Amino acid sequence: MVSMFIRSGVLALLCMAHAATQEQFVFKHVIALSGFRCDASAKSVGVVRSKLMCAGACKRDVGCKAFFHDVTSGECFTYGTVPTSIAGCSVRHGAFFKKPG
């Protein structure tokens, strides 16, 4: 079972893998980068069904600091560094999230 909570620009994911085990991971919505897919340090994970699955891919990747989920194509991109501007980014229909800190 997967639950998703969005409050104040924070996407909190709670995955119930087993009745006795809970895994929680939190990503902050980066409004300035949403709608843009940046090429710098982007790694394509492939097509996933939801931003929850994209968040899970980022969580499993030790070097992942952020992710972008393209709503139109379903493509998921993870980032080893968080872009600081939209320079070199292309306009895409999707959301950009980063790990806190």
From TrEMBL:
<feature type="signal peptide">
    <location>
        <begin position="1"/>
        <end position="19"/>
    </location>
</feature>
<keyword id="KW-0732">Signal</keyword>
<dbReference type="InterPro" id="IPR003609">
    <property type="entry name" value="Pan_app"/>
</dbReference>
<feature type="domain" description="Apple">
    <location>
        <begin position="38"/>
        <end position="84"/>
    </location>
</feature>
<protein>
    <recommendedName>
        <fullName>Apple domain-containing protein</fullName>
    </recommendedName>
</protein>
<dbReference type="Pfam" id="PF00024">
    <property type="entry name" value="PAN_1"/>
</dbReference>
